[in-house]
Structure formats: structure tokens, C-alpha cells
């Protein structure tokens, strides 16, 4: 069994939803299809929820009516017959009546999560009715019947697998099972969501839970590219990546994949393939445990913006026992993750990508020494299998950026990543010069 996941843009128009139906039904292999909300829906629901939290019920009602109008037009172009169109209208009536009720009553975080779940519930039901109209053998499974998280907001893969397997067994004999991404129940039995990675995370969890043959994540991009195509011309998709390489690229800026979304598949060694709904014949990118004989090969570059660099200089305290622990405890206190860190005999430099509590953090760090802050920084990472251990790679990187001011470098912390920190004004130049020096006249696997 395979798991196919389609994001919001892939089902963002009736024509695209038609294409998705063609892709998942062109052969009779058994599949679980995971759908996101139709593009724009979740943003609209977030806006409605914010209005209700602020007590702006009248504005929220107008937003609900606007969203309903969009869906009314959507279903008219989705179906070719009156019967499925009538059933779709009933679906819309049910879910938009619920949204209207939420606008009338007390609105808390519990109701907010119910509201946010409506997008996936709508897209899957509308898609299900279309597949039935086309004569396909499809069954709709509610993610709320098997996808759940613990009190620590972590999914229990074994429990998910047992529940999902039982549902599939109960509805055995079908080739296509449709379900929602993103949404789940929490330990209290309330509607909740997976947050990290959303529907990608759902697909990875399902793949791990049922030991799927493969998880396919379909977007409008033909795989993970070797550089940012918005900055560098003539990038190309990478045929093969290890799970670790893909995670590094996702964390450091490759938007096609959330860094946490493939963790379940990685743990259970389920291959993940990135495919394009626009060009379904493109090979895409296969992510697996197999490095494919590419040790030491630079696979790709990625960049992460909006980085803040902080340097704490203290000749008196740096080498003192427990000093680094005290520094880290400040960031732990304010739940702020550290991306890069370097140390010298008199200073510690580190980076963060969330400056929400920057003022409070700096206030506490000032107790330990002189603190300097550089904002508008970018982390550029060079990723490949065991690339940090390959002779000559670091020299090529340094030679490439010899005319670019480098604020920090992280080398050796990961076998698969060499990271440099530059001012964001040098981001484009850094990506282009590294691309030319590391990939020119070179065919990647």
C-alpha cells in the first residue's frame, strides 16, 4: 500500500482536483490519499478565528459568507452531474452552518481548533464525491477516527496503526482510501491538529503506522532542488537524498518539506518520494535511508533568513565551570532554539531564528559579559552525505566565499552539513557563487 499526500495548491481549483483524481486512480494499486485544505481556506479560517477571539463577530460572519461564496463557485465547476453537486451542497450547508454557530457562541481555543479543522473536512468530502461521480472505488476515512496525539502532543504510531488497520479491514476490498491531513484528536478527545508539517506529517505517520511501501508527497514543485530556484538560475531536482540530508535542507530553508514531517518515515525506514502534480512524469526526489553511493558529494544548498546572531564576550567567566550551561538555560527559559554556535577562549557566538523574546534574553545575557547583536543574517548550508568529512570540500567552500564577509561557520556538528552565516545582503551572492563553484560541470545523483 502507498500513501499519497496532496497539498492545498494541488487541490486549489476544480481543474487541479480533477488532476489529483486522475493521478490516484490511473492504476489499481491500493492507496491512502491524504488531502490538505483547498488553498486559501486555512488562512481564511485563521482570520475568522482571530476575529472571533477579538470579539468581532460581525466581521467574522462576513468572512464566513465570503468563504462560502468561494466554495459555491468551486463545486459548480468541480462536478459534471446534478446528483454529486447536490450532495456537495449538503456538505457545504453542514460545515458552514457549524462555522456560523461558532460565530454566535463563546469562542475559545477549543472552538478555534474545531474551526481550523473544517478546511480538510471540506476538501476530502468534496474530492470523495468527485471520485464517486467518476466511477472510482473510493472510501472516505475520518482522520478523527484514528489520528490522535498524547498529552505531550506526540502521536502514538502503534495506536494509530491499530486503529487505521482496523478501519481499512472493516472497509476492505477498496483501492482508494481518502483522509484528512493535519487534523487529529488530542488526549482529551477534542479536535486538535498536528501543527508541525501538517499534512506532510500525517502522511509520514500513516506510512509508518501501516508500514507502507512508499509515501509520496505531491506539490507543484518537481522535487527538492539543489539550490533556491527563486535566486539561482538553472537549478535542478535531486534524484536521491538520505533522510538526514532532507531534514537538514528542510530545516535550513528548503520550503518543499517541513523538517519534522518525515521523522516517522525515517524511524520506520519508509521511503518518501517528492512528486509534482504539474509534471507528474518528472522523476522527483526519493528520500530514503540509502545514500546511493554519494558519500562526500555536495547535494544541495539552502538558506534560512531572519537570523539573529548574538555574541557573549566574557574573559572572566567563559572558561568557568557551568558557564555555557547558564547561557543555554537563558534560551531554554524563553523557549528559543539555537541554530548555530561557536566558541573561542573569550566569547560564545550563537544564532536564533525567533526574536520574540530577544529583549528578555539580552537582558539576562548582559549579566555574563558584553553582548553584541547582529540582525538580518542568513544561514547558508551546504548539504551532502558525510560532506563534512570529505577532503577538499571545506577548501572549496572557503575559496568560493573568499570575498564575502562570513560572520560564523559551523563545521563538524553534523556529518551532512557545513553552515556559514552571512549578512542577508550577501545571501544571493553567496548562493550564486557557491552554486557555480560546487555544481558547475558536475552531474549529481
Would you mind describing this structure in some detail?
The protein is 39% helix and 22% strand. The protein is an alpha/beta fold and 445 residues long. The strands form three sheets. Strands 3-4-2-1-7-9-10-8 form an eight-stranded mixed beta sheet, with helices on both faces. Strands 12-13-11-14-16-15 form a six-stranded antiparallel beta sheet. Helix 2 packs antiparallel against helix 3, helix 4 runs antiparallel to helix 5 and helix 6 packs across helix 7. It is globular and about 75 Å long.
Keywords:
alpha/beta; 22% strand; single chain; 13 helices; 6-stranded antiparallel β-sheet; 8-stranded mixed β-sheet; 39% helix; 445 residues
Characterize the largest beta sheet: strand count, sense, and whether it forms a barrel.
Answer: 8 strands, mixed
The SSE order reads EHEHHHHEHEEEHEEHHEEEHEEHEHEEH
The count of DSSP E runs of length 2 or more, i.e. the number of strands, is 16
Q: pLDDT below 50 for ≥5 consecutive residues: which ranges? A: none
Strand order in the sheet with the most strands: 3-4-2-1-7-9-10-8
Helix content: 25-40%
Summarize the structure.
The chain is of the alpha/beta class and 445 residues long. 39% of the residues lie in helices and 22% in strands.
Topology overview:
Elements: E1 2-6, H1 14-25, E2 31-35, H2 41-53, H3 57-78, H4 82-104, H5 109-133, E3 138-140, H6 157-170, E4 176-180, E5 183-185, E6 191-193, H7 198-209, E7 214-219, E8 240-242, H8 243-251, H9 263-267, E9 272-276, E10 285-288, E11 298-313, H10 323-333, E12 341-343, E13 347-352, H11 358-365, E14 370-384, H12 393-400, E15 406-414, E16 417-423, H13 427-439
Parallel strand pairs: 1-2, 1-7, 2-4, 3-4, 7-9, 8-10
Antiparallel strand pairs: 5-6, 9-10, 11-13, 11-14, 12-13, 14-16, 15-16
Helix pairs in contact: 1-3, 2-3, 2-5, 3-4, 4-5, 6-7
